Each structure stands twice: as C-alpha cells, then as structure tokens.
Amino acid sequence: MNDYTIYGVILLAGWLATDVWRWLGVIAGNRMNEDSEALKWVRAVATSLVMAVTAKLIVFPTGSLEASPLWLRLAAAGLGFAAFLAAGQRVVVAVVVSVALLALGLAFV
What is the pLDDT of residues 46-68, one digit of tens each? Predict the structure, then answer.
C-alpha cells in the first residue's frame, strides 16, 4: 500500500463512521415532533457541548492563541456575544467582531 491508499482508507473509514449516524439522525429527526422532550434534550446537550468546547478554548487555549492574555480572550468573546445579540442573533457578526477584537488586541498588547 502506498501513502495515498492509506489516506484514502482513513478518509473512507472516517466518512462511513460518521455518515451513518448523520443519516440515522435525519431519519429519526424527521419523525419526531419539534416540541418533544427528547428533541429539547438533544438540543440542550448539543448546545452545552459547543459551549464547553468554546469555554475550554478561551480559558485553556493552545497554539498561537495561548500567547494572548486571558482578559483579551474574555473581552473578545463577551463583546462578540453582545454583537450577536444586537445583530439579531447572527453568528457571522459574532465571529467577525470577536476575531477583529482579538486581532486588534494582539496588535496592541
């Protein structure tokens, strides 16, 4: 086996392992009532997992973000969230504001 074949096998196995669960989720989700307790629980768990990863990246960053001070990361996240709410819950606005504030802060710190 050459290197490209190994990468192909890895990609195929990764795709198959996750794609099956996505399709099962779509099939099960289409049959569920949007206001059901099970779907509310799934949304709550998904939201909490995303927020846990975000908090971990802010408090315990890796890579180049590790060089930035904690106050700057917290301020960028907080002001990005405020912009998210002010813009009618548009994620793009929150990301752009947070990244811009972080970049500006890193330029001056």
Answer: 999 999 999 999 999 998 889 89
